[in-house]
Write a structure and sequence with these properties.
The chain is mainly alpha-helical and 447 residues long. It is built from 16 helices and four strands. It has helices at 2-5, 19-26, 33-37, 50-61, 65-76, 80-104, 111-153, 170-182, 191-218, 235-244, 252-258, 265-291, 308-339, 346-370, 374-401, 408-446; strands spanning 7-8, 11-12, 161-162, 167-168. Strands 1-2 form a two-stranded antiparallel ribbon. The protein has a two-stranded antiparallel ribbon with strand order 3-4.
Length: 447
């Protein structure tokens, strides 16, 4: 396309023409998927308005994490809401730090560039590993959520598949079918199509919140349950659930670079995190008051199954993961295509991209069916990956990049946040891992 644009009367334009920035953007090596989806085509021209940037950031933040906030509050107690709010404040601050790092070096365009700017190739490798590990574990969580909600949607359906090596229940068969239906989306290279899938996912997340609110108002369920004050022994595991809800930092640099006025990025972060934190806290208390100790790890599973509002919420939760597969796979797919020989034609690259993506998704399906414990996997993802990406790395990168300029107060604050992040990450990983192993052992003993 650039060859056509970059010609005038059959002659190439000079290097200082407007085609060069476009060419550089189109050939960028490692652009994150969400920047292509949530920021849409803003990476070509930095013309995203303040409102558009807020919508993009909110769209990146809300998702799977909101389903577990009532469960986390019920298990952590009312006082744990301070942790939820505090993590929102911390993550808003660390997003501000990422913006400062980008402002320091305009050549940096994404999170991996910031890691490279701070610690060289080692920083890039570390943050890239965390990004891809987070994507992989998040997809497992999405697939578990798909499985759990499909089992309620088709509660009266009776399917069985038994063989020498395969024994699948109704919900497992339905989940397999749903994943197979979603596999063709991995072959998409048209980012307009992927953007549409993303928009559907954002709408579904908002619809879930609305349906829970409608259950409280019109559903006949009385909000009369008492939420415990504090279960301190559960704080390490639920901290992973809380921080997962704020895990959007890998995309924030792309939102920054897409803004018409990047100086307003900090305000974008404050507005976005304030709105998302308000939504999370409201949903957490709403679910805790409505369902009490019986609240499920996914709020949709606790809603009255015979109501139309619940059916809408369940279907919204089912469709959300199916819109995420192409979205989450795209960064890896683009990196894969970049590594393939340049002489290989586009059809061959698309075949390899689709085949590798299909195999990875089938591996994710198998793991999700073998480890169907949503809250533990989500908590492990938050503690093992999200804490690093959202809290530890931004503070560490900023401190290294601004070492000669940072004030003593700023240095102390960043060091304290790194220590907090390490504590939550280590304790949460240990706690959620123990709970996951215990659940697996219990399931094995009962068979």
């Amino acid at each position: 396309m650039c060859d056509k644009i970059c010609k005038s009367n059959g002659k190439p334009l000079s290097l200082d023409s407007t085609c060069l920035p476009l060419h550089n953007q189109l050939t960028k090596n490692s652009m994150d998927l969400e920047s292509l989806v949530y920021v849409e085509n803003q990476h070509v021209k930095s013309n995203s308005s303040f409102l558009h940037a807020v919508i993009n950031m909110i769209g990146m933040l809300i998702g799977l994490g909101q389903l577990s906030t009532p469960y986390a509050l019920e298990n952590g107690g009312c006082i744990s809401s301070i942790l939820l709010i505090g993590l929102g404040v911390i993550c808003a601050y660390t997003s501000h730090l990422l913006g400062k790092c980008l402002q320091k070096n305009p050549k940096s365009k994404d999170y991996k560039d910031i890691g490279h700017q701070a610690f060289g190739i080692k920083g890039r490798i570390i943050i890239t590993s965390f990004i891809y590990l987070g994507i992989f574990m998040a997809l497992i969580s999405y697939t578990i959520s798909l499985h759990d909600n499909l089992s309620i949607v088709f509660i009266n359906t009776n399917l069985k598949l038994q063989g020498i090596l395969i024994h699948l229940s109704t919900s497992q068969i339905l989940t397999t079918i749903a994943v197979l239906v979603a596999i063709p989306s991995l072959w998409l290279r048209n980012f307009s199509s992927i953007s549409f899938l993303s928009s559907v996912g954002i709408f579904m997340s908002l619809l879930i919140f609305v349906t829970v609110a409608c259950t409280a108002i019109f559903g006949g369920v009385k909000a009369n349950h008492e939420i415990p004050i504090l279960h301190i022994q559960n704080i390490p595991s639920i901290s992973g659930l809380y921080v997962f809800g704020y895990a959007g930092h890998i995309v924030f640099p792309n939102i920054y670079t897409a803004m018409r006025d990047p100086s307003k990025f900090t305000k974008v972060s404050i507005v976005s995190f304030s709105l998302v934190t308000t939504l999370y806290v409201s949903l957490a208390f709403m679910g805790g008051k409505l369902f009490g100790p019986q609240v499920s790890s996914q709020i949709t599973l606790s809603m009255p199954h015979d109501q139309i509002i619940t059916k809408i919420a369940l279907w919204a939760t089912v469709l959300t993961p199916m819109t995420k597969y192409a979205l989450e796979f795209a960064p890896f797919a683009m990196e894969l295509e970049e590594k393939l020989p340049h002489l290989m034609n586009s059809k061959a690259k698309m075949m390899i991209r689709g085949i590798v993506g299909s195999i990875l998704l089938l591996i994710i399906l198998i793991l999700a069916l073998c480890v169907p414990y949503f809250e533990h996997v989500l908590s492990l993802t938050g503690s093992l990956v999200s804490v690093g990406v959202c809290v530890i790395f931004p503070c560490a990168f900023y401190t290294k990049i601004f070492w000669k300029e940072i004030s003593r107060r700023g240095l102390v604050l960043n060091v304290v946040l790194v220590i907090i992040g390490l504590f939550l990450g280590v304790s949460g990983t240990i706690s959620s891992s123990k709970l996951l192993v215990r659940s697996l052992k219990r399931a094995h003993d009962s068979t």
